[in-house]
Amino acid sequence: MKLSPNLLGRFGRRKSWDDVIFDTINTLFMIFLCTVMLYPLLNTLAISLNDANDSIRGGIGLIPREFTWYNYQHVFGEAAILQAGLISILRTVIGTALSVFCTAMVAYTISRQYFVLRRFMTIAFVLTMYFNGGLIPTYLLMRELNLIGTFWIYVIPGIIGVFNLIVIRSFIDGLPESIFESARIDGAGEWTMFFKIALPLSLPVIATVSLFVAVFQWNSWFDVFLYNSAQPHLSTLQYELMKILQNSNASLTARSAADVFASGQGGGANIVTPTSIRAAMTIVVSVPIIMVYPFLQKYFVKGLTLGGVKG
């Protein structure tokens, strides 16, 4: 096989000292950057797997000094954890699907130049980002809608995200209008153009927005505290973990850190501390997002970048 002169010139020549220095500095910088980003996560993992008595001494690096599963056993030993985890999964899946679908429909509608209320609707949605009724009026509204004490309180109030709406609308605005005109000439209606043109072409931004909404739904706990704290069967994983952390804080207040350390030195009884519980909780709630993110990574940067081209 004969190589072209360009390829020979590109790969056949030896690297200059400038190239070597640049590659070396670039590699060292990337290693440093990866270390800075990974260290907090690995340190948290090490603390969560380390004995709580020993963690009080500090100095935990990337490897547990006294390995134990007790922190996780304590977290998952709570009776309500499995039910709460199921509710968190359901609200994340259902809430994300409905929110992304409804937001995409509205974004497509206000992206059409021939929609007469396009400007008015856009301004009305944007204003809600700056002004809201406040906590008490919102609670009264949810009560009048009979959403308090139900699962749908997690889904319906956030079914349209204004920031996500703007991102998706900007992406659709950037699609070639000739595609929609050709489909309209062939007799396609708005539903057909939305499902067969707008949605497939907007897959990168849809994946990006889906990640935003899923992370919000998965991490949310204040709405549980506000609306469903009296409904244990509707509690979420984050809310239950928050209660475990509060109980751990109260337990530590009852006895000093010196007493905890002494109990570990004397009998070695298994205990937990706010630090060890917090580390275990962080890992528990982070793992699902870490597992999902790699599948959306190829869409994430592209969707976020292209979605912000137009205002």
TrEMBL record:
It is found in: Cell membrane. PANTHER family: ABC TRANSPORTER PERMEASE PROTEIN MG189-RELATED-RELATED (PTHR43744), POLYGALACTURONAN_RHAMNOGALACTURONAN TRANSPORT SYSTEM PERMEASE PROTEIN YTCP (PTHR43744:SF9). This is Aldouronate transport system permease protein. The keyword Transport applies. Coiled coil: none annotated. The chain crosses the membrane at residues 20-42, 80-108, 120-139, 151-172, 193-218, 277-296. Keywords: Cell membrane, Membrane, Transmembrane, Transmembrane helix, Transport. Residues 85-296 form the ABC transmembrane type-1 domain. Belongs to the binding-protein-dependent transport system permease family. It comes from the Bacteria. It comes from Caldalkalibacillus horti. SUPFAM superfamilies: MetI-like. Gene3D superfamilies: MetI-like (1.10.3720.10). Pfam families: BPD_transp_1 (PF00528). It is a multi-pass membrane protein. PROSITE patterns: ABC_TM1.
